[in-house]
Amino acid sequence: MLSVNGAIIEVGGLTKRYGEVLAVDAISFDVGKGELFGFLGPNGAGKTTTINVLTGLARLDGGTIRIGGIDCTHNPKAGQHLVGTVPDESNLYPE
């Protein structure tokens, strides 16, 4: 289900802390249906943390997340079946 603005993923003010360390500081973005979206930035910019929050592997400390019209802010597993990631390296099999 798309939102009013046509986004399939809506993130508003996403914030994540690890103790005193602010890993992600109130980022907001929308991803439209069929859109290719990537995170670019230097080491420590919060890319992996943001993906972990979106996939339910980490809990957000502030902000909102909607995936496919489902509010995942307080229940990150609710939209987990709609999200997938492709890692840049596989650690499952030895080389």
Tell me what the structure shows.
The structure is a single chain. The chain is mainly beta and 95 residues long. The chain has a single domain, classed as Rossmann fold, CATH 3.40.50. It is built from one helix and four strands. It has a four-stranded antiparallel beta sheet, with helices on one face. The mean pLDDT is 87.
Main attributes of the structure:
single chain; 95 residues; globular
Helix content: under 10%
Overall outline: globular
Q: What is the average per-residue confidence, as pLDDT, rounded to a whole number? A: 87
Please name the fourth-level CATH homologous superfamily. P-loop containing nucleotide triphosphate hydrolases
Strands of the biggest beta sheet: in what spatial order?
Answer: 2-1-3-4
CATH topology: the name is Rossmann fold
The total strand number stands at 4
- For the record, what CATH class applies? Alpha Beta
Class per helix and strand makeup: mainly beta
